Amino acid sequence: MIKVEQALLVEGKYDAARLANIVDGTILTTDGFRVFRDAALQKLLKRMAAVQGLIILTDSDAAGFKIRHFVTGLVGAEHVLQAYVPALPGKEARKAEPGKEGLLGVEGVPDALILQGLTTALESAVPRADAAKSRAITYTDLYDWGISGTANSAENRRALLHRLGLPPRLSKKELLQVLNTLYTYDALCAEIKNL
User: Fold this and answer.
1) What pTM value is reported for the model?
2) What is the mean pLDDT of residues 82-107?
3) 2-124 maps to which CATH number?
4) Of 42, 141, 152, 172, which sits with the fewest C-beta atoms within 10 Å of its C-beta?
């Protein structure tokens, strides 16, 4: 079990029930798209984020990223840690059919991958000792590596994200933030050479 100081925000009650078994902390839900129209819920999220911070852990599908972006903008990115689970094909046991995109939601992802996503998010808030020794990964690096702004860059980026166990929907800005959090420049160069 992992203890979190920040409030943890997930999409639905099944996600919350699942995380209650592996996380010690406050768990809130967006109730799916309800967060877009519920002023009271929005006010609560703003207050919680300002007081203790917020970790957002949504599904790796389009709906999850839409919710993630909305809440981050609502409460302010400075109050948010982003936790990601990989985009894994499948369906939850309680469902008759897989979701629209055929991906597991947070409730269906193995515990180890959820804990890894949360640990990575928490570590992103703490400066790494090796960060001072390595230069930051830049947009130019993404271009040079062929994962942004070049022919076949979308396909190359998807392959890299899959290899690294990251969701395929990261924007260029999110991708840069995540890569700088998880990797040094030299370590990522090595990963890309192995691709």
Assistant:
1) 0.75
2) 87
3) 3.40.1360.10
4) 152
